[in-house]
Amino acid sequence: MIDLVLAGPDRLAPYLLLAAALFSLGVFACVTRRNAVGYLMGIELMLNAANLNMVAYGRFRTELLAGHAQVATLFVIALAAAEAAVALALVYAIFRNIRDVDLDKIRSLNGE
Amino acid sequence: MNVATLIFWPVVAVTLAGAAGAAFARNLVYAALSLGASLVGMAGLYFFLQAEYVAVIQMIVYVGGILILILFGVMFSRDILGTSTEPSIGSRILGGLASLATLAAMGRIAWNIAGTESLGLRAQRIPTADWVGQISSTSASHLGDLLMGPWLAPFLVVAVLLTVVLVAALGLVRKDAQ
Amino acid sequence: MIDASILSVFLVLPVLGAVLAWILPARPNAQKTISVTVSLGLLAASVLLAILAVSAQKAGFVLRERIPVLSDWGIAWHVGVDGLSIAMLFLSALVQFCASVVAAPNGRVRAYHSLVQLLFVGVNGTFLALDMVFFYVFWEVMLIPMFFLIAIWGGDDRKRAAVKFFLYTMGGSMAMLLAMLVLHFQIPETGMTVAVRNAEVREQMTVGSQGETYLYDLPVLASDSLGKPVVAAASDIASGSNRPLFVPVERNFDLLHWKLLAPYWADLQILGFALAPVALAFFFVAFAVKVPSFPLHLWLPHAHVQAPTAISVVLAGILLKLGVYGLLRVAWPLFPAAALDGANLFAWIGVISIVWGGFAALGQSDLKRLVAYSSISHMGFCVLGIASATSQGIAGAAFQCVSHGLSASLLFLLVGVVYDRAHHRRVDGFGGLAQIMPKFSAIFLLSAMVGAGLPGLAGFVGELSSLLGAWVNPATRVAGLVAASGVILSAAYLLWTVKRVIYGTVKHPEQRAFSDLNTAEMAALAPLAALSILLGVWPGLLQAALGPVSASLAGHIAWVAGLR
Amino acid sequence: MNVNPATSALIGLFLPLAVSVLGAFTWRRLGKTLDLLSVGVALVGAVATGIGAWTLGQSGTVVSVSFPWLWFPGTGIAFELGLHLDALSAMMLFVVQALGFLVLVFSRWYLHDDRFYGRFFASFSFFVFAMSGVVVAPGLLQAFICWELVGLGSYFLIGYWHDKPEASEDPEYQAGKPWYATGLIESKLSPSSAQFKAFVVNRVGDFGFLSGLALCAWVVGTWSGFQGGDPLAWKTLFGAVADGAFAQASFLGWSGMALLTLAGLLVFLGAMGKSAQFPLHVWLPDAMQGPTTASAIIHAATMVAAGVFLTARIYPMLTPEALVAIQWVGGITAFVAATIACVQWDFKAVLAYSTISQLGYMMLGLGAGAAAGGYAAGVSHLFTHAVFKCMLFLGAAAVIHGLHGVQDLNRMGGLAKKMPLTAIATGIGTLAILGVPGFSAFWSKDMILAAANAKVAIAASSGMPVWSSMVPWILGLGTAGLTAFYMSRQWFLAFLGKPRDHHLVDHAHDPDKPSVAVLLLLALLSFQFVWTGSVNPAQAGSWFSGLLAAPVAGLNASLGHALPEGVLHHIHLSTMLSSVALVALGVAAAWLLYLNLASVRHRTAEWLRRDVPTNLVWKFLANLWFIDKAYDFLFVEGLGRRGGKAVAKTDMGGTISLDRAIDQAAGLSGWAGRFANLFQSGRSGAYAGWTSLAVFGALALVLLYSK
Q1: Where are the domains of chain A?
Q2: Contacts of residue A109 in chain D, CB cutoff 8 Å?
Q3: CA gap A14, D670 in Å, rounded
Q4: What is the ipTM of this complex?
Q5: pTM of model > 0.80
Q6: Are D652 and C298 a contacting pair at CB < 8 A?
């Protein structure tokens, strides 16, 4: 059944595997990056993985609902954009305050 | 082995490589750029999935918008950070384990899906070979109908949200914010 | 006509009081007036109930209502009062009155009075609740205000005392929660039918429109000649037939239904372990902390020494009684067989509390701490009486609750009086007060005698009944013999204190300036003193309410134990 | 005139109670009227109960009234309070009320200028109420309740002068203290200490009483023949005993007679406390800290007699073994107290120890058993002793009042000239307690000794070990001689000879007329013919033995077998002769040592105290056989103070204490907290990592291992 996995664009499995890989890479980035921007990139990766899953499922599983899946994806993209904007604004504000965006140093909520 | 498949695998490779770069690259600029590559590859995959409109949006919003924002962020954080982005060994182990767990879980699901497809539980789909001339069920106009129909309420909410976000972002970056 | 809706008064009034005390501008007299008014209202309501109970003279619930809420989780708003809970509600109202009349600590008046009211919401709720969930909730509701009352208005070491109080009680509550959940899920989802004691049906039954019988709102079934279950006619039961009766019980949190399940709990096995002894142990820990019994008593001296006078009064006057009430309402009814098996152990726990507390009290130099240990010693008699699981013992335990509520409140109020005058509580820091404060000394001697169990005063009846009960049960006889030595100890430490504080020469001349009891103090002390004499001379007044309940519980225990 | 005995008893009970309640609140304001009120009430009570007793004696019936007081549904048990008036209790009730009245009359003179004047009458009335309650008790429970209330009354009266300092801090006491005032623990010698001591020592006895009561309630309450009602009512209780209820029960392996013995002895422990029987006698001498007139009624006439009365009441449930124990306790008490009394220098202390000794006599008599005539003997002595000992105490009050509080015998002497009437009255009382023929104790005490002697004979005939009854008898005989010695010594030292302290003695004078009248009336009652109507101790048919006949007859039937008449007569005769001889010996010794030789060796007492070897004996006795000191070391300081401190420290505050141990255990939770902290780095990245690791790891495991 490996052939099913490695089959071309006409199968669902490759997309899912790719999405899994992207997501786990995003997780890794989120965990390891000490930099706010790096963190943001990880999040974007995960969002993309999710989008890919949605569109792929929409296409291969629920043919008639494919459109809905894509609309949802559009929403995610829009929200991702908004999120990125706010995140960057925050990064900028923090940077102005403490001349740094190292998340390890931003711990005022940790009571230190 | 048709032409689509021949294009397909390189696109996957680009996406994956870009993502890996975004995750592993020491230098944030390179990371951001490889993220861009990954995003572009993603758009290509959307084409394969017959989601042309999404692919276009992906190119415009992600590659054109978000990536630029991220690059800005990198730009004015880089001079302070220098090479101090070296992640701690502990966080690397943690990240490795976490991502492996994620990969295992989702990979297993994908594997199962593949298995079910082998059992012939595949949805009927239009063969990639003869797209051309077909009226996709997911043309932009169709998506527009959906947006203005069942998705109207979320659409408006998102619209409001985006406005708020815009204002908020502006507020945050105003000079006298501190 | 009085129906069960009057019971909500015991919760609504304090809540209103709390809200009022909080929203009104902080003026000590205003808040104090609210507290006193609320307590008077509760007092009136409880007296009304008491009249009902004494006139009814039945073991059953005088008022009871069951309104299903969250029925798919088996939770119902089930409240009711029988003689026991009415006595406790009355004591609670009385203690609240005395605690409100005496001077409240200065500062944060609004918070203080609101918290006191909330505390009594929890107390009254626990005495009312017949559903395990609400019982537990009110139990916890009571815990939090007490924590703050000690932690904010306490003495120098208040934080530690409050945390100790909280942790001990919380630990007990956790045990109760665990046991309660385990029990709940041991009931088959489909429900089950259990045999019930005819006498209990006769005591508690309600008659339906078609003359059918209900026990705790459950239809009572009798098995006809063919052994098929048929609806039992109320007339038939009332006429005293001894046909075996059954009720269908479903999975819920209802305490009374759980009581009916006692035979089921008795022979329930989990992982090869008998459930009943373990669950009983958990409940016993939960309640023994409050009582408090010997190994779990260590929070009490801290809490008492640190708490302000009024809060000490509440603590000793009513909070300790909740432990005994829990044992009588939950632990023993649910696991009679296990309780009888452990009678010896429980009795010795009570006896050790009596003797240990007595000796510890002998060794104290701080008046408040001395009274605290005397409380431990006196409450030991409650545990002893309950352990004996006889009509005398259980009635004695309940009676001892009331009498100790009176004597301990009196003593703490009096200690508060001298502390207010002298700003210290060292026993050797006083002497010859009888020449300076005659009223105070008279009431002090009276309270000491109540504590020492002098006949003719309330303290005697409880101890006597507990001892009588302990002698009836073979497993607790020796314990009863040893426990009787408590009368020597209590006389020793209390009268020794009396001698050192109020008799002899005036050791500290500056104390000649002390003023005798003022009106407020008299108002707080007089009712307690009068009641402790009245109940000593005429115990039947209280026994009329407690006796039938204790007899019914003893009968239940004997019946379940006999089924094996 | 004929009143219902029950009514009269209720009058005697509740009028004094009303007075005491009134007085409790108002004694400061209307002290001077309170005394008249209480005296009047006491008179009414005395007359009423007297008529009641007379009526009862005429009809010879038993009056019993009771109402439920504390009941237990489901058990059929309902304890009752009420009245039980038979010959014994009616007579005792009358004695209590009458003596109460006389003592109150005397007290008006004795305490007339006292600072707590009114309070005395309030407390006294309360005591009379409680004591009457014990006497008329219809069952063991009311007996116990009023028993403790009596203790409370005694507590009030002993601590009457509660503001006095301990003797060690009392300059007055230290000034007047002679060098030979030894053996007392002065740091614990004050009214407030004495009342405390008395109450707690009595509680030791009441511990037994309470346990015995509970034991009986259990046995009778679960007895197959129990009909419901009060299991402790005399009738039910004795019925159950006779029916062998104790054979059905078992406790720690004891059953039947053994269990009954245990029950009897537990209750008797209470009697030991109240009646100051060895080893619980230590409180009575201290109780002399109270007003002397209070001692007259409480620690001489009535309260201490309550123990004897109770023992007589529960006679039907006392097994022969129990009686042996009682007889031993009585004998030892009588002898020990008598020896101590021989060296007391304090006028009241002599009387206190003589009281203990006489109470021992009564127990000795009761312990001899009904068959030996011990019951009648003990009870008779209870009454005769009540009268003359009350009078002796009142005489002591008169002396002490006359000497402005001086109680040292060695500063008295020659008082007979100054207070002749008091001297005569106390002289008669002394003769009475000596047991000189013609005086009341000659009759009752000889009955006791005869009974003890008869017990020996019975034991010999019924196969019980003879020594078990021989020893108490010999102790009793010895005590007779000692009593003669110390009582005559006291009277000689106080009233005869030359005044040793002139400016003290010169101001002495007799009490006022009513008080003297009281003294003389009681003196009159100390003659034997008042009680027996003849001088023959064995003479039956006197009104008083007739009074006692009824209960004794029943007991004789129930217990043992009586001796033949001839043997009894012989025993009586021999006992009479021997006791008279001993009395003569004792009086002669006292005469020689304290009057005659006083001129030869300047101070005989000095010689006894100073010279070897007598001073060793003297030290031992003056230290009260070191019993008080031993108790103080073992129980008060040791068990009480140190034990209490030790337990308190072990519980909390000590270096090794339960509290600390639990705190340490709680400290362990800190480690758990630190471990949990590992996950709380505050790095959002780490949070994300842990979260996804947990969620997806779990998911992966589930998926990978699920088929």
Answers
A1: 2-98
A2: 682
A3: 50
A4: 0.74
A5: yes
A6: yes
